[in-house]
Specification:
Strand content: 5-15%
Protein name: tRNA (guanosine(18)-2'-O)-methyltransferase TARBP1
Structural class: mainly alpha
Radius of gyration: 31 Å
Low-confidence stretches: 1-14, 287-291, 337-360, 376-395
Strand order of the largest sheet: 5-4-3-8-6-9-7
Oligomer: single chain
Distance between the termini: 78 Å
Catalytic activity: guanosine(18) in tRNA + S-adenosyl-L-methionine = 2'-O-methylguanosine(18) in tRNA + S-adenosyl-L-homocysteine + H(+)
Shape: globular
Number of strands: 9
Pfam families: SpoU_methylase
Organism: Forsythia ovata
Helix content: 55-70%
EC number: 2.1.1.34
Mean pLDDT: 79
């Protein structure tokens, strides 16, 4: 395309209604390019409708070239092909930008490049990606298969029947298939239903709760739209298949859990339009100023995951309340002859009701070192100046809970004052389960602190589920990777010894290492370990002796073992 033609397209392409919104933002250039390629696609359509035209041919060629180049990048570029990355990171941002533009370029998919396009697309869908990135892949795929319906049976059906695919990939294919059925032209809609619906149905029984819930929502919408309501009196003449689908539809419509899940989606599927979602106006106008990240709307998968996490939290709270009720019930007078007397208030002794033949060994839920027990005794919610309060007198559960919470807050103040002087530096770690596990380990062994690259992970649902509130009790400090050297130099000046948990030529086996009281322990990346420039700053590297073939342990497990060894040495001193 000539420079003059490019200028002419840019001059005419800008949609004032769209670009005015972004005129003073960093998105203006990207929006302008997206609108330009959308206009070029209009010109390229003239090749098919009105015959060949030099400008139209140039527009078509440029759009195809840009599309294939972008697809090649998302498959092969080191960052864009990465599967493990942080939400809102630079890599996350690049991935979203690339796939947003690929959606805009979907109109340039033609018979001569569709095989290359779908090959790159399925490689990307198979890989692990955040839902905010996957939604653009799914929109792009829906566009292709609506445009080339014969490929549905050739490509999409075999993929749906590959039940060994990752649940994340299967979820994407279910979303793609359901929307192809819902948005196909009327003359081929029934054919798509016959092809795609049978391989989707088994996924309703998936052990993966997110995939199962996701499939339930989409199947319900397909049944609602394409399975007309039948007369109850005609059930005797229905085929077995029709009866099964009628009952399935009824279950999904009336089951309270399915209804709540559907309600939490807030009309997402009804409002979703794959055609509009691939237009510049559809991509760049869903702006929520306070939560804006590359104009990305909330995804259906995000909504399902949030719903399931909230449901699990509700269930956990309900189970905790039941446990309290059962425990309180055991404190009441029991007339069972197998139980002993539970209270002798005249002698000031508190006896717990126990069956005569019960074992006196039991699981301890909370235990403290002996030297802490003496300090805690003076702060106990039992009044030492008077006789012990009878549990039977505390009939109000709220009063008992308040006392326990007060006792815990006092105890935690004592615990924070007696922390060990070891800091774990996990700034190189980006996987949330590992960071959450390390937070829990640091709390258990009373570490002085845990350094992470980004403290916003503390609000992540997955982090909170694994850490079980550990982040509330252990000091967590934010030390981005770029600030690690400064942080380590500062701790060195404060008298801390710097250790790294890494296998090096001079690393010391953990069982031979003697940790100073004031220690900083640096943990490496999940695969690459500790960078060389950080290793050179350390006083020593420690490795865990291994007997097996696999080279290393999971970083959370390694950190826990090293922290316990430090704790063991401090206890024995």
């Amino acid at each position: 395309m000539t420079r003059r033609m490019r200028y002419h397209c840019c001059q005419k392409a800008l949609d004032p209604e769209l670009t005015e919104v972004f005129i003073n933002t960093e998105l203006y250039a990207r929006v302008s390019v997206a609108v330009m390629f959308h206009k070029l696609a209009d010109m390229a359509d003239l090749v098919r409708s009105a015959g060949e035209n030099m400008n139209s041919l140039a527009a078509l060629a440029s759009g195809k070239m840009f599309l294939l180049e972008l697809l090649n990048l998302v498959v092969n570029d080191k960052d864009l092909a990465k599967e493990l990355y942080k939400k809102y990171s630079a890599i996350h941002r690049r991935k979203i930008r690339a796939w947003q533009m690929i959606c805009v370029l979907s109109r340039f998919v033609d018979q001569d490049n569709v095989e290359k396009v779908t090959s790159s697309l399925h490689i990307s869908i198979y890989r692990s990606n955040l839902p905010s990135v996957r939604q653009y892949m799914e929109t792009f795929a829906i566009q292709i298969y609506l445009k080339f319906p014969l490929l549905v049976g050739q490509q999409l059906v075999p993929l749906l029947r590959n039940y060994n695919l990752r649940p994340q990939a299967l979820s994407s294919y279910v979303f793609i298939a359901a929307n192809i059925i819902l948005h196909a032209k009327e003359e081929i809609q029934s054919r798509h239903l016959d092809e795609l619906f049978p391989p989707i149905i088994p996924l309703l029984t998936s052990h993966h709760h997110t995939l199962r819930g996701f499939t339930q929502i989409l199947v319900y919408h397909v049944l609602q739209k394409l399975l007309p309501a039948s007369d109850c009196g005609s059930s005797f003449t229905m085929s077995l298949e029709k009866k099964c689908f009628e009952d399935l539809k009824s279950y999904l419509a009336h089951n309270s859990d399915c209804a709540r899940l559907r309600a939490s989606m807030d009309g997402y599927i009804d409002a979703f339009d794959p055609m509009k979602s691939s237009l510049p106006a559809g991509i760049f106008t869903d702006r929520v100023e306070e939560l804006e990240f590359e104009c990305v709307p909330a995804t259906l998968m995000d909504r399902v995951i949030n719903f399931l996490n909230d449901t699990r939290e509700d269930l956990r709270c309900s189970m905790a309340k039941d446990a309290v009720s059962i425990k309180n019930e055991s404190f009441r007078t029991n007339e069972d002859p197998k139980c002993t007397e539970i209270l002798n208030s005249n002698e000031g002794e508190l006896l717990i009701p126990l069956p005569k033949d019960i074992s006196y060994d039991f699981q301890r839920k909370i235990s403290f070192p002996k030297h802490d027990m003496q300090e805690m005794a003076s702060t106990s919610f039992w009044d030492n100046k008077s006789s012990y309060i009878s549990l039977l007198d505390i009939e109000n559960e709220d009063q008992l809970l308040d006392n326990l919470l007060h006792s815990r807050s006092v105890v935690m103040e004592k615990l924070s004052a007696s922390r060990q002087q070891i800091i774990l530096v996990a700034s190189l770690i980006d996987r949330i389960p590992n960071l959450a596990g390390l937070a829990r380990t640091c709390e258990v062994f009373r570490a002085a602190g845990l350094a992470v690259a980004d403290k916003t992970i503390l609000k992540d649902k997955q982090f909170q589920l694994i850490s079980v509130t550990a982040e509330k009790w252990v000091p967590v400090m934010e030390v981005p990777e770029r600030s690690m050297k400064f942080f380590l130099e500062k701790k060195k000046k404060e008298g801390f010894a710097l250790f790294g948990l890494e296998q090096t030529a001079n690393s010391v086996p953990l069982d031979r290492c003697v940790f100073p009281t004031k220690t900083v322990l640096v943990l490496g990346r999940e695969k690459e370990g500790i960078p060389v420039e950080i290793i050179h700053m350390l006083d020593s590297c420690v490795e865990i002796p291994q007997l097996g073939v696999v080279r290393s342990l999971n970083v959370h497990v390694s950190g826990a073992i090293a922290l316990w060894e430090y704790t063991r040495q401090q206890i024995s001193q």
